[in-house]
Amino acid sequence: MASTSETPHSAAVRLGCTVDQVGYCARCHGYCHRYGKGGNPLCQSCRKDVQAK
Ligand SMILES: [Zn+2]
Q1: How far is the CA of 40 from the centre of ligand 1 (A)?
Q2: CB within 5 A of ion ligand 1: which residues?
Q3: 36 vs 51: CA distance, rounded Å
Q4: C-alpha distances in Å from residue 6, one per residue of 2, 13, 23, 34, 51
């Protein structure tokens, strides 16, 4: 798990989703908008990484 003091609530604010939609990225295990509409099992930076390959 990524070393971060971020809480699910602050992650939700950063990600622009609700706390309910916050989950852990399947790749880096940081917080991401994982559930619900627009959710993805990967965080934004991992998605970029995967798409770059
Ligand atoms: Zn990630």
Answers
A1: 10
A2: 25, 27-28, 43, 46
A3: 22
A4: 10, 11, 13, 16, 26
Place of tokens 């295990």: 29
Q: Can you read off the two tokens belonging to residue 27? A: 């790749």
6-34 confidence digits (pLDDT tens): 899 999 999 999 999 999 999 999 999 99
Whole-number Å distance, alpha carbon 2 to ligand 1 midpoint, is: 9
Q: Is 16 left (phi over 0), alpha (psi -120 to 50) or beta?
A: left
